[in-house]
Specification:
By secondary structure, the chain is an all-beta fold. Helix content is 0%, strand content 48%. A hairpin with a 4-residue loop joins strand 7 and strand 8.
Length: 128
């Protein structure tokens, strides 16, 4: 059974930084692209970033480019999201997910449908 467990969220001030982590088990983690999404209250789940199985390719939503960095460590079965210069609008529950497909270009993997396993989420709250 695939399990994804996010951590690292919290209450922070605008302008602060956070590093979210996602620990994966139950699948050959290194063979699949991974993604991060977020969901604010009363809003749909929103794509944030994706990373290829090797980590050599990354793709970001326009709203987070330049502030968010996705990375992975296949030896440790983890994927991380570094968030800098946090804004109030970044407040959301952040989820990591594994891709259904090993081979699709990550730039096409921007909807929840492209992912089949999800973590429980970690709350990020930014006060202004």
């Amino acid at each position: 059974q695939v399990q994804l467990v996010e951590s690292g969220g919290g209450l922070v001030q605008a302008g602060d930084s956070l590093r979210l982590s996602c620990a994966a088990s139950g699948r050959t983690f290194s063979m699949y692209p991974m993604g991060w999404f977020r969901q604010a209250p009363e809003k749909e789940r929103e794509f944030v970033a994706a990373i290829s199985w090797s980590g050599s390719n990354t793709y970001y939503a326009d709203s987070v480019k330049g502030r968010f960095t996705i990375s992975r460590d296949n030896a440790k079965n983890t994927v991380s999201l570094q968030i800098n210069s946090l804004k109030a609008e970044d407040t959301a529950v952040y989820y990591c997910a594994t891709s259904r497909s090993r081979h699709r270009p990550i730039a096409t993997m921007t909807t929840p449908f492209e992912y089949d396993y999800w973590g429980q989420g970690t709350q990020v709250t930014v006060s202004s």
